[in-house]
Amino acid sequence: MNALSLALSSIRSRPLQSALCVTAASAGVALLAALLLLSQGVQDGFLRNAQGIDVVVGAKGSPLQLVLSSVYHADVPTGNIDIRDMEKLQHNPKVKSIIPVALGDNYRGFRIVGTMPEYLAHYGAQYEDGKMFAAPFDAVAGALTGLKTGDSFAGVHGLAADGGDVHHFHDYKITGVLKPTGTVLDRLIVTALGSVQELHRHPDIGDPDAAQDMEVAHQVTALLVKVKRPIATMSLPREINATSNMIAASPSYEMARLSQSLGFGRDLLAAVGIGFVALSALMLLSSLASSLSARRYDLGVLRVLGASPETLAGTVAAEGVMLAGAGTVAGIALGHLLAYEMAANISSLGGVVAPASFLQFHMLDGCLLLMGLVTGLFAAVVPAVSAARTDIAGLLARGRA
Asked: Which residues form the domain of 276?
């Protein structure tokens, strides 16, 4: 006779109540796990995508919009800047290197980025098949685009997949397909800067945006700048903003501001998850208490047969910990699957988070499991103490009735 076997027998005797307790616990833990995994994944993705980019320079407008559009490709660009402004900035003594990006076209919703080979090297790109673009209108496809080496396509003006203004002047040809990087590069089609500019030098006849296209042929959308010294990360944006018609922004600063502004929603969801966990603890407490009331005569018989008060208390405590542990383990697994599905199916998260990472074990899982077990133990404290104080003589005298 031991507490664990008695606890298992008690759980099997109440399948519906036990299942409800496990379900309530798993729902709360799953919500918390998915929220924490996604939050950490997004933060890691922000850092991973902006690593090595100290300053972003572009047309006047919102600095956050500039960073989101040029680094994370999650917004509409603020405009374009003249190629001569880039050449002038290259001679700034604070600048170590510049990678230009030219945006404005897409293929099936995947943005076409005109840039330099250094852009691919910045993200540590490796080839699944093919090679780097070399000739005009050669392009390299990210891992999530679905394109294959040798595919040809015409770019569509704008960043919307359903745009009707197709650039028929020249098709792009895929010369290489990249391995997954877990960055925005996975959802991009990368070509030479000159290819994008050349395409816009030949607008279609009758195109109402012909004049604008001709301007784009001598412009870039943004500049990804790496500075020589860390102090220039603060001083260079102030200098550019004050002395030019461009705007400069620090990706790390802008993303910190964005995370702070989204903090309320994240905290609210966390509160909901904690509320679910608290509700499951109350349900577990209620289940154990009602079960104890129905089993008091049986507990009295166990005492007569030699079970100590500690054994009875341990039985109830073990029951609470088992139910809470089962719910927590199920919730952690469900939370990982929920985070994976959200990361894989929400397009705005593509390239920011790596969905496959959510199917792996995290240190967070151990913390959630410990939290679940402690919650189950606390919920069982009152029923366990009550079980240990069972009045043998009174119960046996009254009988089961």
From this structure: 3-46+262-398
